[in-house]
Amino acid sequence: MSLKAMVFIDGAWLYRSRSSIFAKLGEEHGCEIDYAKLPRVFCEDVANFLDEDVGLVRTNYFGTIPSVRSSFSSSKQRSFYDFLEKSCGYEMEIHEVDVSGNEGRDESWVKVALASSLMFNSAMPGAFDVAILIGDDTDYAPALRRARMFGRRIQLVTAHAAGGVQPATGTSLIWKSHVSDFPPLYIDDHAEEVRLVRENIMRTCKQCGREEETTWAGPEFFCSECRSKRTIRVS
Ligand SMILES: [Zn+2]
């Protein structure tokens, strides 16, 4: 029987850490990331380390969004979260925050929600064997220690700072004892694997049934003619 891995993503940390991926790839203006592939890459690392089959049971993502009351437009962020849920199969926990006031509260919600979910799932018999935490913050140390008391194994995923420098002792979980069971993984070491490569594929138009070459990998495809007629809503 294969081991079960559950991935926990600190959305705020991942957003910040994309810069380490861009730096490794030499893409100063950034590039697209293959979010569907990202959790599986680290699952494979755990499987290779243990030399056992590891199945990904769920990817839990924690993030925030500006509340409708604030003046910020959140439509782009909403469609990104929608994409993670519908196209990448993530389990989303998104909290509305009033960003006009205290921005510092933004990330503390993400941490508390992630730690609570880790505790809840650790206490559920048979929910998972290995937790893969994509998010490096010493605030997670107590929750990780408790999860290990439940017999869960922990894989930490962090990122190198600029110039390949290891994360600082005071802020990174990797220097804390008794919070992880495997050597840490670095997201930028997998930069090539998590970079989204768009390939041309033939797809069938949902409206007229014609086939057309496209790089669009979303769930629904409409051909250029149908799109130009604007008879359909394209998200
Ligand atoms: Zn069409």
Protein described:
The chain is α/β, with parallel strands linked by helices and 235 residues long. The protein has two domains: 3-194, Rossmann fold, CATH 3.40.50; 199-235. The protein contains seven helices and eight strands; from the N terminus they run βααβαβαβαββαββα. Helix 4 runs parallel beside helix 5 (141-149). It is globular, with a radius of gyration of 20 Å. Bound molecules: zinc ion. Zinc ion is lined by residues 205, 207-208, 210, 222-223, 225-226. Residues 205, 207-208, 210, 222-223, 225-226 line the site of zinc ion.
Order of helices and strands: EHHEHEHEHEEHEEH
Put simply, the count of helices is 7
How many individual domains?
2
Mean pLDDT: 90
- N-to-C terminal Cα separation, in Å? 41 Å
Largest sheet: 6 strands, parallel
Under CATH at level 1, the class of the largest domain stands as Alpha Beta
Q: What oligomeric state do these chains adopt? A: single chain
Strand content: 15-25%
Query: Order of strands in the sheet with the most strands?
Result: 3-2-1-4-5-6
